[in-house]
## 1
Amino acid sequence: MADVSRFGIEPIDTHYTRPGHAAAHLLMEGDQVAVVDCGTTLAVPLIVEALTRRNLELAQVSAIIATHIHLDHAGGAGALLAQCPHATLYVHHVGAAHLIDPAKLSNAATSIYGEELFGNRYGVIVPAPAERVVAVEDSFELQLAGRVLRFYDTPGHARHHCCIWDEKSRGVFAGDAFGIGYKELRSTEKDEPFLFPTSSPAAFDPAAMETSIMKMMELAPDYLYITHYGPVVAAPAAVARLLDQVRGFAALLPLLPELSNDQLAARVFAIISEAYMDYLGNEAPPAELGELLTEDVDLNAQGIEIWGKRMWKNG
Ligand SMILES: [Zn+2]
């Protein structure tokens, strides 16, 4: 993992489903703090503890930023706001209403996971007071103690996704727009991370994903701060490999009507694992590779199927 603590940026493990799965990022500048992708409501005590450990007060948190409103990124935004008296929540304009009134998010997730698993994973979603929410548009600028953060509209993973450019560290808070890069998948020999796309339901759009990635790469970032998991160097080779996989997903379109769910998941696994083997070269993959990727492969296959139906319907 890239160490960017000299820029005041540190990942905090939110323990979403397991350690090392999802990171909130603290961004510290002067006497102010921003929390990017705070995680679920259940992660809020971990964020509070991380701030306390750094002798930071909750009153110093001036910004809570959601890259998008998926619950592993922003489910806890309302609960964290309630603890941080001077914080404002910044979220993409398409998603803002759903953090103000999270009923739809709760209901959708409850219908997928069932009440019990939903509670165990996400806790209770606390509404964010509308007057403390800023619905951001493309090119919106936020200043954290004078440090400029610029928001970019980056659809493809979700329509309510934005990436945040931090000029000072030349890094992008990337949410899920640059895929997933688990620490367990990293080479022991190179700096470059392995990234694979996340096409989870229900608004995957491979063309938009590619455009969003290119848009952020035009800024020539040194680092990507990705939720799953942590700061990595923005190696062009890693991004090229990520784009190849996005194109691989898109190329499944003509086959989708014929493929069963299992067959589609197998195709998705093959695309990711082939890219991964290419990345590893002579290094051995972790023994638990299949297990590590199972949930993401399933979610990716579901998202690709939904995208495919949309494409077929629109001709
Ligand atoms: Zn997401």
## 2
Amino acid sequence: MLNNQQASFEKFKKELNYCYEKVPFYRKHLDGAGTHPSDIHNIADVMKLPYTEKKDYRKNFPLGVLAEGYKPNDIRLTRSQSSGTTGERLITVEVGMLLLNRAMKCARVNPAIEQAIFNHARKTCRYAAPNCSDVECANPNSTMEDRLLSDGTLVLPVYHDLLTTSDELIERALEETCNYQPDLYYIDPTHFAFLVRHARKRGISLPEAPVMGTYTSPTQYSRRQIAEAFDGKVALTQLLASSEMGWLALECPHGGLHLNTDSFFLEVIRAGRSAQPGEVGELYITSLDNGALPHIRYKTADAVRLLEEACPCGNKLPLAVMEGRMMNFIKRQGRYIHSPYDIDQLVGAPDWLDQYQCHQLDEDNLVLKVIVNEHYQEGDEQAVLDRLREALGDSFSISAEKLSYIATERSGKFHATKSDVTSPAVFGETHAC
Ligand SMILES: [Zn+2]
């Protein structure tokens, strides 16, 4: 069980009652499953409740899923949309104040981030796929003023397909960053690693500020490149957030990813049961604050692994590892075999590596695509291939390709590990995953 799950369970029951009474979708959803809030007496009973998925919210938005008393155009609501990682984009709303509270509770684990985020005069530079914001940052003709948001965020210009970004646009992003002197970088790790590589090539030092990486999980090579760009004085901080729910987990200065169990009732589900510490499972989230668009047992399609140990930072919020989007796992015979996090641990961050993608083509074949730099010597990738082959076993055929370009996904995100095996998969009882 998660550290303070009992305390959040009391709030869970209130949220469940609230949903049943105030949200038309939930009454139908629970009645349809033959369950009622009064059936839920203890944490184990939570498993009796049906889960919810993205499609439930998409299909019933706005009137079915909005709580009584809220209208879609309510001025208290903040509107956001997902980047469409799995295809269709999802529009969602929540009370702005509640999203802020969730972020505040989560930010407590990292004082530097907390200070930067809640500084009212803050200046943030955002560098991520164009879909991740509402401004036209991919338009080469846009000006800095066009991309400056009312909250002090400067959205830096970048192409939708990251590695095709022109030199002109890269130089503009670097120049704007130096002129703007941000006190926070709010970035996608792959995107920002690309930008700092180009800064170093041009001998440009970017202004020092905390770097918060979200949208996709950081890879080791992106952490290395970002640390190098700031001469080791700045390290990337991982934020796990979703457009629907806000801040779910944040990395502390000791490198621990702390789950925001103050704001959410979190479950890690594996093969129909709660995962034990050390096991990988799917993250299910329940909101606890009686908001405008509450979520009950929301399946995220993200996999995490709970850790049992206490964090040296002293914060009691539970620790987890973000293993990756489940669709990106290496799969075989209907089972998840290796997570993107696993693969990244195997690849590591050798100095010759600028970027990679481990791409599972089918049940038996993987290709490791690498983009290398001036430190590369013929055959350097062999050691990485050896580690992958040892971990994945002889039955996989793994080849390497040296490239100068790897495409991003349709969403504009870049997945360091991806799989074309789309048949349904489960977490096994015996495998590493
Ligand atoms: Zn910690």
## 3
Amino acid sequence: MSESLPSPRALLHLLFNGARAVDVVETALRLGLLEALEPGPVTLGALCERHGLVPGRLYKFLDCLESLGLVRREQPTEVRVEARYSAVPGLRAAAEAVLGAGSLERDRETYAWRELHGHLPEVLRGERSMPTEAFDWPPRTPAQVAGFEASMAAGLGPILETFRAHAPHLLEPGLRLLDVGGGDGTLAAHLLEWRPGLAVDVYNLPACEPLVARTREARGLGGRLGFVAGDFLHEPLPRGYHALCFVRVLHDWPEDTARALLRAAFEALPSGGRVLVCEEFRTPERLAAQFFWSYFLMGVDSCVSRLREVEHYTRTLAALGFRDVRVLPGPFELVTASRP
Ligand SMILES: C[S@@+](CC[C@H](N)C(=O)[O-])C[C@H]1O[C@@H](n2cnc3c(N)ncnc32)[C@H](O)[C@@H]1O
């Protein structure tokens, strides 16, 4: 959005028109208008000529984008076709990410959110919940497990970028890493491909074993990608690793469980061993990206889903006795700490 937030009333007008607003942005993406608008400025006349569009109609279309705060307009003369437009930086990539074919939001649409829609008063009073056949936490049926882990793997992009940037100095050859709650092994597979001397085991509920086996086979990783079946709520974390990572795991649990998991990591690690925590630490932007799950999980009490500020984890790690607590930059920051 532009520099300042819209007023509550303007925001609600835009939200009420959400389906139409998405139609406008999708069309701008599909027609290639964003490519011309983002470097901007480009005149209404030039856009019409280039794309074969009707000036009076495109003007109204661009008003829609301007009301969303996504383009800026200058009108140097009274002549309509001389109006000059620029998109806010990053719009094309954002539109591709949120509205494009592989978008996370499109994947989320396949979840049973309609079970709650229109029933929030009953949901909030605890009288209505997400039916467990539709979604359960942790996922229970093989179809739920496979569907959920596939959604997770699809959203790994920013995490992979962060890990890729820091892997050379964090994951030295010979290191054995345990990816706690490591999904279907997709992150582990990337790490193994980037760092030939590394070995990674995924620790996850037994139902995830076939998914990790499939990843191992599909990526030709053989014995370098292991699987350890377990339930971190009911047993200590396994020993024998130089590093343990929690990627989008701690935010699923209440404060005391998240802390107990970090304490379990402390106990499992050898002296000098490292813990790595990566998830969408709370910022306004990430809370917006998480809107779907904040809504959906209102009906699922077993999943806490709480984005916490990065400082929460740095404080907790220090309080548990970890040393060298650091926050490494990236699309999602990576918190690292060592056991003394
Ligand atoms: C939100 S997903 C994150 C998956 C993966 N780390 C990622 O970021 O794509 C949480 C993971 O925790 C695992 N999990 C949930 N409860 C668990 C438990 N009690 N013990 C072990 N793993 C568990 C789930 O199976 C799932 O793989």
## 4
Amino acid sequence: MSLMVLNKGAVGPLIEALMADYRVVGPQAKGPQFAFGTLTDPAQMRLDYNTTILPPKKVLQPQQERLASYSLGGKPSVEQIIEATPTVLFGIHTCDLHAVQLLDKAFSEEYPDAHYLARRDQTILVSLECLEPCDEHSFCKSMGTLTAGEGYDLHLTDLGLAYAVDVATEAGAQILSDYGSASEAGDGDVRRLNDVLGAKWPRFTYRLEFDAAELPALLSTAYDHPLWQELGDRCLACGSCTNVCPTCYCFNVYDETNMALTEGERVRRWDSCQLDEFARVAGGENFREARAARQRHRFMRKGRYIFEKFGELGCVGCGRCIRACVADINIVDGFNAIQRSA
Ligand code: SF4
Ligand code: SF4
């Protein structure tokens, strides 16, 4: 829609003004790491963060949420619970933005999810262009998520003393004009923006040794690859890799009832295909009992199955699963190994 410029000194007042009417969630320091959390003070925002422990997915799909409450006493009743708050999700990197776009598809196509969609509807996304890789595990350039042309309401690029703000939606324009003090970008700002964007690409390296677009076809021939057994022998089935993943959206649903079994709540929590009991079904049968089979499933989801379902790869190259894995299992190394042996 338009390109604006927001001085860095105006970011704090913008956040403070937004906090009066919205829950503002942004990256904050958490020990030596960073985590997305609700801001209580604009000074908590750390737009210089590298990556966060958990992705911003947790704002749209909380680790635990209530779906419905029910009562069996007297006249039985069931009431749906929709928990959604007007939220500004501030400072998300483009890999995570691509992941949100994938979650939008997962929760709206086939089985629209009223809980996710209500939260998504009330969330304004302010994304941030990455000018440096998070660390050596980032492979966003290989996965085509190093930048984004859509999916945000506002998109910030650091120009040094100010941010260039790409205003993409009415909602973005509204919060910027109502709560901020941005000015229209001039020719000099546009030149500076082009210079900054042009200079960032060489700082990122391709870590896949082949074009990621080849992944679905490559994996379709790798179902019996020996790599799965090798990874399965190392994997501890802790589930960390999926819990930190911005594109994993599997969940489990539980009933939490009172002692008399007369009322309760239906809740859902994140689940992980890497846990031993994930595929256990009635009668005790487990259709993905071996860790090797579960490792294969994770790689297949990321590089093939999600693509077949939604037309996009299921991995955005954030590197979180590599950082989190206690067994040093590296998805880039895995994909490269399969390609080398093809
Ligand atoms: S599979 Fe790993 S690198 Fe890919 S999006 Fe998930 S956490 Fe990030
Ligand atoms: S983080 Fe590593 S050890 Fe844990 S389940 Fe994932 S691959 Fe296995």
